[in-house]
Every structure is written in structure tokens, then in C-alpha cells.
Design brief:
Blueprint lengths: L11 H6 L2 E2 L5 H10 L3 E4 L3 H17 L6 E5 L3 H8 L6 E6 L5 E6 L2 E6 L5 H11 L6 E4 L17 H9 L7 H15 L4 E5 L6 H19 L4 H8 L4 E2 L3 E4 L7 H9 L8 E2 L5 E2 L2 E5 L3 E5 L15 E3 L1 H15 L1 H14 L4 H4 L3 H15 L11 H12 L9 H4 L3 H18 L10 H12 L18 H8 L11 H9 L2 H4 L9 H11 L5 H13 L3
Parallel strand pairs: 1-5, 2-3, 2-7, 3-6, 4-13, 7-8, 8-9, 14-15
Antiparallel strand pairs: 4-5, 10-14, 11-12
Helix pairs in contact: 5-7, 6-8, 7-8, 8-9, 11-17, 12-14, 12-18, 14-23, 18-22, 20-22
């Protein structure tokens, strides 16, 4: 049996016998180089980072294209650092799960340091601030999910946390964006060295959202007298600070107990799953799919490693945006989110099982090919139709990817405007198209409203996935009873469907509000009505 802490250089043969590829560099030398001249900081120490970003870094370290590793900053969950990074010397096992049932296993040792930098850990924050004073630091990446950027509530008002950060200044912010702004202030005060701040979170125009959030905090500090105009000028100077856009795609579910059992059978010992008190699911290993994409706007004012040597596509902002819009708003994430919503309602525990359910398969085909694809701009570097083909025929039905609708349903209120709102806006903007002619997007939005009831298609209560707006939204539909003919659906849904901060449009104004209400009415008539609504919509309007 091999362990993560075994000497992978002296015991290389033992790892080989377990089918595990080991690093081609010395971890201690990498750590020493990083301490002296840090290059890359990453915010968010979760499974996506471990299975994607850290493997990119490992590839570059193996090839000699990079000498310095990654410094991971986790601001949400201290147990991630204390229980899965530090005990294993920042190593983990990457398990790439192929559709033919085989695994590629690699010991990843590209993380030089891991820091819990929540507002309750001043020592961690001070350590990270010191890193930001180093001129060698070239770029920072983020995978903190949509809610990590949130400074406003569903009504468009500043959250109390954001108001507190602006009022109190950069001393010890409580929001992620306040903390990031404070680190940039530290760099400005130290040397005004250039840096690229690269959001790799899974939503459209992520770099713009990061920039807007940082500037909202910074300008608030300026008005309160906490910073000078020079700091604002530094942030706005594209020779100094950039916020490149990106598109990222790699399905990375929570570590699977079944995968852990298979790893143990193959001779790998560190397979225990860790469930933190903040509901993070993580392990000394991570399981992910073999297909992946990362496209980044090539705008790094302090230089960058040769990321393209590790498969990253570097291009201009327009191409990044086109690729991102294709994936996040049309060809993958809307399909994924629809499976999450209806998977929870229909009692599924596996995305792969949903992908071969004939009703749900037809639903996502009609959504993807029928309603999303017509408004997608071909980015040139990835063919949109081929992308959907691969998704539907290979990626989603891959039984070796232990993904669940419950995981994907997390934070849906933060996603629906991106997953569906952008496509709706294309239909609004194009004089040749009419959003009122759409059927599957309205049905799916109705399904989400039905999900908010927390009652499944059998009429049984279920626990919705974590979502920052769930309690607020649930109150709108909490008292609806299945089979209740007297329900005033408009009264229940109007506040949700007219909310521009969720969807980007008032859905009544673009001709969809009443249609969504009609689909919702169908879904609450009785037990089994959700599946019947999907089936009837396919029968009436399906083309695929």
C-alpha cells in the first residue's frame, strides 16, 4: 500500500505498482523556489482546483516550464486546509475517470503552500499579504463559485457584509472581494508591481464581475477616505492590473466512496472522505472527467508561465467570451442545471442515470440543439454542435463520473440568470427571434420554481441543495399544496419571475412570465405531474 506522504522519489516503484504516476520534480526544491519568488496564487482550495489548476501547474513543473508552485488561499472553510492539505504535505491523488471505465492516477505535488485566510485568521491573512508584496507574483486565479463574488442581494442592494467592508476600510474585510481589494492595496503600497487577477469561475464574463466587485469596494473606500486616488488609478491601469476573462470546463464531482474503494483495491491507502462542518466534501483524492477546457484572455502585465504547454488556450477577450457564452449560457451549463433541477424533483441520485432517461435526454436535446444553439456564436476554437454532441453522448452518460443532481443544484439562484438569462437576452435583442416562442427554457424555469417548494414529484419533502437565496425564494411558494386548484400562481411567482437581478429581465415584459406560470400550474396538479409536464412538452414542441 502507498500513501500520499511516502517518498515518491525513493519509492517510485511502489507507486508504479499501484498504477500511480509521480511528479518529475523535487517537492522541497519547488517549495523553496516558491517561497523566494512566488508566481501563482489561487483562491479556493476545493475539488475543481485540485483536479484542474493544480494538474496544470504539475505539468509545467514536470516539464521545467515553471519552477515555482501554487500557493492556495482558502477563505471559506478552515477544515479544508487543516484536514486535507496540511496533513498530506499539500499533496493529493488525481483520478481521471475515462468513459471506458479505466482510471489515470497521478500524485499531485504542485501546491507549495496552503493558507486559511478567512477573516477569523489574521495570521493567515498577513502571510498572504506578504506574498502579494513580492514583485515576482504574476497572477492570481479564482475558483470560489458565484457567491464568492456577491456584494449585492437579490434586490440589487449592497449586502450588510459589503456595507461593513466599505465603512470599515481595508483593515480586515469580511467579504472575499473586500479581502482581494485589500491585498491589491498591499501590493500598491509596497511597489505597484503589475499583476493579473484571473477569475476561472464557471460563469459568463467572470473577469468583468471580479473587476466590478473589486472596484466597487475600492471606490467605496475612496469615498470614505480609506484610500487615495492613486490606488484607483493603479487598479485602472492596464499596464499594472488586469482582470482577464476565462472559460473553464471540467466536470469535477465530490470525491466518491466507490472510487475510494477502487483506489484501496489498487494499493492506495489515503481514501477516507472528509465532510466538514461547513458541508465541504473533499478527500485526499479527487475524481474528475478526462475531457476539459480552459480558455484564458492573454493579458498578463507581469508575464506568465507557458500555460499553453499544459493545454490552456490563450487568446483574445472576444474569443474567450464567445467560448464562454457557448458553454456557460448554451451548450453545457443550462443542460446541466436542468438535469439538476429535475433530477432532485424526480428522485435521481446520478447525473449519468438522468442522461439516459429518455424524457430527460429529449429535454436537454431540445434545450441545447433547439433553443440554445441558434443564438450561439461559434468561437472558432471549439465547435458548438460538436461540443453538445460530446456532452450528450460521452460526458453526461459517463457512469464513472459519480456526479449528482444535488451537487449541481447548489446555488441555483445564483446560476439561473446566467444559464438561461443570457440566451433569453439574445432572443430579446435579435429582431428575427421572439422569446415568447420558447418552450423548454420556460418549462425549466417553471421546474426551478417547483423545486423551490422542496416537495418532489411523489409529493414527498426533500432537502434542497444549499443556496444563499433559498429561504427568501422558498417563502414565495412554501404554502402551495399539490392538487390545490385554487392556488393563485401569479401571486406566488410574480416576485420571482419579475426580478431582474435574477434573470436579467422581467420575464413578464418579454412574454414568458405567463407561460412559465402555466407550466408551473401543470406541475402542481398532482403527484407525477412534473414528469407528465416534461413528456407533454416534448410531445407538443420537441424536435429532437
Amino acid at each position: 500500500m502507498v500513501k500520499l506522504l511516502d517518498d515518491y522519489q525513493k519509492d517510485a516503484e511502489s507507486f508504479h505498482q499501484a498504477g500511480i504516476t509521480v511528479p518529475e520534480f523535487t517537492q522541497s526544491a519547488m517549495v523553496e523556489a516558491t517561497t523566494a519568488n512566488p508566481v501563482w496564487v489561487h483562491f479556493g482550495g476545493g475539488n475543481l482546483f485540485r483536479c484542474f489548476h493544480s494538474t496544470i501547474a504539475q505539468h509545467l513543473l514536470n516539464s521545467g516550464a515553471m519552477k515555482s508552485g501554487v500557493i492556495v488561499a482558502e477563505t471559506y472553510d478552515d477544515e479544508v486546509i487543516d484536514r486535507v492539505y496540511h496533513p498530506y504535505n499539500n499533496r493529493f491523488l488525481s483520478v481521471e475517470m475515462k468513459s471506458d471505465g479505466s482510471f489515470d492516477k497521478e500524485l499531485i505535488a504542485s501546491v507549495a503552500d496552503s493558507i486559511y485566510a478567512g477573516a477569523d485568521n489574521k495570521a493567515g491573512r498577513a502571510k498572504l499579504a506578504q506574498v502579494f508584496t513580492k514583485p515576482s507574483l504574476q497572477f492570481v486565479t479564482f475558483s470560489i463559485t458565484e457567491k464568492g463574488y456577491a456584494l449585492k442581494d437579490m434586490d440589487g442592494n449592497l449586502t450588510k457584509a459589503a456595507e461593513t467592508d466599505i465603512a470599515n476600510g481595508p483593515e480586515n474585510p469580511v467579504t472575499n472581494m473586500g479581502f482581494v481589494a485589500s491585498l491589491l492595496l498591499t501590493r500598491y503600497q509596497a511597489n505597484q508591481a503589475p499583476i493579473a487577477m484571473v477569475s476561472t469561475d464557471n460563469f459568463s464574463q467572470n473577469g468583468q464581475r471580479l473587476e466590478d466587485a473589486v472596484m466597487l469596494i475600492a471606490n467605496g473606500w475612496l469615498k470614505k477616505g480609506h484610500v487615495d486616488q492613486g490606488f484607483i488609478d493603479y487598479l485602472n491601469n492596464r499596464q499594472k492590473v488586469t482582470f482577464p476573462w476565462s472559460m473553464i470546463d471540467r466536470i469535477t464531482p465530490n470525491p466518491s466512496e466507490e472510487v475510494g474503494k477502487l483506489l484501496k483495491k489498487d494499493g492506495f491507502e489515503d481514501t477516507q472522505l472528509i465532510h466538514t462542518s461547513k458541508h465541504t466534501n473533499i478527500a485526499p483524492f479527487g475524481n474528475t472527467e478526462e475531457i476539459h477546457y480552459l480558455v484564458i484572455e492573454d493579458d498578463f502585465p507581469n508575464g506568465r508561465p507557458a500555460l499553453e504547454k499544459a493545454g490552456v488556450m490563450l487568446t483574445d477577450r472576444e474569443t474567450v467570451n464567445d467560448a464562454d457564452q457557448m458553454k456557460v449560457t448554451a451548450c453545457l451549463n443550462p443542460l446541466h442545471t436542468s438535469l439538476a433541477i429535475f433530477g432532485c424533483l424526480l428522485g435521481f441520485k446520478s447525473i449519468a442515470a438522468e442522461a439516459v432517461d429518455q424524457d430527460l435526454l429529449k429535454m436537454i436535446k431540445n434545450l441545447g440543439y433547439g433553443e440554445d444553439l441558434p443564438v450561439v456564436k461559434d468561437p472558432g476554437i471549439i465547435n458548438p454542435k460538436d461540443f453538445i454532441d460530446t456532452l450528450i453522448t460521452k460526458r453526461l452518460p459517463n457512469k464513472n463520473i459519480p456526479d449528482t443532481p444535488q451537487r449541481i443544484a447548489t446555488d441555483t439562484s445564483q446560476k439561473v440568470g446566467i444559464r438561461y438569462g443570457v440566451t433569453l437576452q439574445h432572443y430579446v435583442d435579435d429582431p428575427q427571434l421572439d422569446p415568447a416562442n420558447l418552450e423548454f427554457i420556460p418549462m425549466i424555469i417553471a421546474g426551478w420554481c417547483r423545486y423551490l417548494m422542496a416537495v418532489d414529484d411523489k409529493g414527498e419533502a426533500f432537502t434542497p441543495s444549499p443556496d444563499p437565496l433559498y429561504d427568501q425564494l422558498h417563502q414565495q411558494v412554501a404554502n402551495i399544496q399539490l392538487g390545490s386548484a385554487g392556488t393563485d400562481v401569479h401571486e406566488k411567482l410574480q416576485a420571482i419571475l419579475s426580478n431582474k437581478s435574477i434573470f436579467g429581465n422581467d420575464l413578464y415584459e418579454i412574454g414568458l412570465g405567463n407561460k412559465i406560470e402555466d407550466y408551473f400550474k401543470q406541475m402542481i396538479t398532482k403527484s407525477g405531474a412534473v414528469r407528465e409536464t416534461i413528456q407533454s412538452t416534448i410531445q407538443k414542441f420537441g424536435k429532437y
